[in-house]
Design brief:
CATH architecture of the largest domain: 3-Layer(aba) Sandwich
CATH class of the largest domain: Alpha Beta
Shape: globular
Order of helices and strands: HHHEHHEEHEEHEEEHEHEHEEHEE
Helix content: 25-40%
Strand order of the largest sheet: 2-1-3-4-5-13
Distance between the termini: 23 Å
């Protein structure tokens, strides 16, 4: 595992600055560019490097549903994007990066294929298809048989967490998660982690809507929602929380620390994604590892098949792995 010192050396800043950025220290005054570089280097150092081996192929684009600034608040999508870029570099592909705030640049490029990272409405998909029909969606399945997709089995991931909590004797289990909408606000998307949590607890006869908190998948909302739970339940606070992503879980950790609630002695936490930051927070975050690098690599492979002539759509569902660290018992 890369150390904070390794990251600091590559970014050319102090280890203390790296540590504070990785822990989302709000008192630190540092530019978004520096934050972005630190997060990207942390991800890059966790990837195995391979040498390029192929000649240039048609130009492709990675289309991100976030702006670069928004991406800093949800490193899951940054990690997928970096996986795409890593594979493209290995394959020596000509890659164009398009973020939400510069979609107009897409029409200026001679694009033969796209990898769309995030959630896209039918209208947005129709606009992308006007540029090229060769599109692979990552972290979203449009439900149309003409497009390839790479998705995560969040249902099984949720079962892994809840089965673990139950095996450890936890009876009061809470959920803190986020909800997403298409960027054109045409619909709110159902989150599989939240719906599976409710079904699981209902099947055990332990469903309690009061234990479910939802906001956005950000550090700030994780912090605010955990504080809300602490205020509402006091000494009856659940002994375990499943948190929808690691970024929110980092906010939850901060709230619990500030309230003097010990982790994992009083409250166990498990997040989702296993972003690089999860190893550097205190205590080290237990989480469900999502193989974001492989998601990006797989998307590139599917797109190359499409450009080469494959007509039948493929949907690839990625498995996950429970990674137990110091925030749970």
């Amino acid at each position: 595992m890369a150390t904070i010192k390794d990251i600091a050396l590559k970014v050319k800043c102090s280890p203390s600055t790296v540590s504070r950025v990785l822990n989302y220290d709000e008192t630190l005054s540092v530019s978004d560019d520096t934050k972005k570089r630190i997060f990207e280097v942390a991800e890059e150092l966790s990837y195995s490097k391979k040498s390029g081996k192929k000649s240039l192929t048609p130009k492709i684009a990675v289309i991100h549903w976030y702006t670069e600034k928004e991406e800093l608040n949800d490193l899951y999508y940054m990690s997928i994007r970096l996986g795409v870029e890593q594979r493209c570099q290995e394959e020596r592909l000509d890659l164009v990066k398009i973020f939400k705030d510069n979609y107009e640049d897409l029409e200026k490029e001679n694009i033969q294929g796209m990898i769309a990272v995030g959630k896209f409405s039918n209208d947005e998909i129709a606009s992308l298809t006007k540029v090229t029909p060769n599109i692979v969606f990552v972290d979203y399945d449009p439900g149309q048989e003409m497009y390839d997709s790479v998705v995560v089995d969040f249902e099984k991931a949720t079962y892994k967490v809840l089965d673990y909590f139950v095996s450890r004797g936890h009876e009061r289990i809470g959920y803190i998660g986020g909800r997403e909408t298409f960027r054109d606000a045409s619909a709110e998307l159902q989150d599989e982690r939240e719906s599976t949590f409710k079904l699981y607890m209902d099947a055990r006869g332990e469903a309690d809507e009061a234990y479910v908190y939802t906001g956005s998948f950000t550090v700030d909302d994780g912090y605010a929602l955990m504080n809300q739970a602490i205020d509402e339940f006091g000494d009856e606070l659940p002994t375990a929380f499943f948190v929808g992503n690691d970024t929110m879980a980092i906010g939850c950790l901060r709230a619990l620390h500030e309230q003097g609630i010990t982790i994992p002695e009083r409250v166990s936490l498990i997040g989702v994604n296993d972003i690089s930051v999860s190893k550097y927070v205190y205590p080290a975050l237990s989480t469900v590892k999502v193989y974001t690098e492989l998601m990006g690599e797989t998307a590139v492979g599917l797109l190359m098949e499409r450009i080469s002539g494959r007509k039948i759509a493929k949907k690839v569902t990625m498995s996950t792995k429970l990674k137990l660290r110091k925030s749970s018992k």
